[in-house]
Amino acid sequence: MKNNPPPSQNLMVLFILLLCLITDSLSCSPTSPRNKYHISKYIRVSCRQTLYPKLCQKSLAKYATEIKTSPKLLATTALLVTFNTTHSVSKRLRKLSVNRALKLKPGEIQALLECVEEVSDSVYELRKSIKELNDSRKGPEFELRMSDVQTWVSAALTDDDTCMDDFTTRGKVKVLVRRFVVRIARLTSIALAFINNYAAV
């Protein structure tokens, strides 16, 4: 039987992770060479199970010290990375929608506004998922909690796809939005893969 860290320790680790993600500080991962190889191997092997292993490794490698070999922390970190990136994209899309210099056509404006709404929904769903995943503990409610997390993250992925479906015509704006949205969709897919693995442990 595995010994799970106390809730207070989990919260402290998650606080450090969130601080690292917000500041994007490389100093958050002071790993010794020997331990770094072992931990990086865990992340590398885990990332191979996803559809986007290179993006997975790139986005999670700097948090190897905090993740160690914990399936829960791996899933939580991937979810935090996804949330922060999606939140950033949401703000960028809002700025694009009011940028008069782009001289957007009415159809492009409408598609962009709908995309902003979809990505905002995704941010909301990812935020709920982070809290629920953090509160998850092995026990009677574990399966229900994880089912909720899986549903919300899957919904966030659907929102990202719907955003791109709103653009029925080609143009520079669609290309730019696609670049942003494809990245967050892939990060969401990675997070969901790790959440599914943790739920099955």
From TrEMBL:
Example GO molecular function: enzyme inhibitor activity
Q: Where does the chain cross the membrane?
A: none
Tell me which residues make up the Pectinesterase inhibitor domain: 38-194
Q: From which residue to which does the signal peptide run?
A: 1-27
Name of the molecule in the record = Pectinesterase inhibitor 10-like
Quote the NCBIfam families the UniProt record gives.
PME_inhib
Query: SMART domains of this UniProt entry?
Result: PMEI (SM00856)
> Which Pfam family, any one of them, does this sequence belong to?
PMEI
What the entry lists under Gene3D superfamilies is as follows:
Invertase/pectin methylesterase inhibitor family protein
Q: Which UniProt keywords apply?
A: Signal
Classification via SUPFAM superfamilies: Plant invertase/pectin methylesterase inhibitor
Q: What highest taxon heads this organism's lineage? A: Eukaryota
